[in-house]
Amino acid sequence: MANMPSTSLNGQPATPAGWFASPAGRVLVDGEAAMLERAMAERPTPPWLWLAPVPSSPPDEACGRGLRLWADGGGWTGAVRCEGALPFPSESMGVVILQHVLRADHDDGLLAEAARVLETGGRLWLLVLNPLSPYRWRWRGHGLRAREPLGWRRRLRAAGLAPEPVSQGIGPGWQPRADSALRSGPGLCAAYALRAEKRAAALTPVAPRRALQVPNGVSAA
């Protein structure tokens, strides 16, 4: 007999995408989208790539030229459909947004792909759930895991990116109401944003060679 999918506290199938499509998840995703669109309009850096957990309306034209895709099984769909590696040239994107599409203990391959397509000097936005928020009771039972900023910064650095030292909280604390304001530090917000930059690799200086020590009385010839 095939295994039945686990269920959440409200009796619905427990899947990450299912929660982000629920009213409580949708409020969070939509508030983040409004914040991200403002940020991109203030600092246009086209082209951009936005990977989201669920479908949503196209960003405002002020954001410039870009592509928003959403998770679909093991791949992505939207204006293009793909699985596995992202079908974009290396260093072709000025901004990459990963909105709740990285799992807390997996998906280093996707993070590496995001770093690959990001141009030098480009910016990556990573939005993840906050494990300290009381909002976590609303995603309980949906197979979602959250971790604190330190672990995410380590993964960003491992992917060759330079994360900012302070994360920014976003979203409601308990009641599912729209909130698109960024706050310094995660606090009790449902989620937080980490920004990272792709920097040019510095040339490693060559260490000077040690002079050969010649014992007294021995010719150096």
Please outline the helices and strands.
Blueprint: H1 16-20, H2 23-42, E1 48-52, E2 66-72, E3 75-78, E4 82-83, E5 93-99, H3 108-117, E6 118-129, H4 136-139, H5 149-158, E7 162-163, E8 168-170, E9 183-184, E10 191-197
Parallel strand pairs: 1-2, 1-5, 5-6
Antiparallel strand pairs: 2-3, 3-4, 6-10, 7-10, 8-9, 8-10
Protein architecture, described:
It is a single chain. Helix content is 22%, strand content 23%. The protein has 221 residues and is α/β, with parallel strands linked by helices. The chain has one domain (16-197): Vaccinia Virus protein VP39 (Rossmann fold, 3-Layer(aba) Sandwich), CATH 3.40.50. Strands 1, 2, 3, 4, 5, 6, 7, 8, 9 and 10 form a ten-stranded mixed β-sheet that branches. The longest helix is centred in the N-terminal third of the chain and has 20 residues, at 23-42. 34% of the residues are buried. Residues 1-15, 202-207, 209-215 and 217-221 have low confidence and may be disordered.
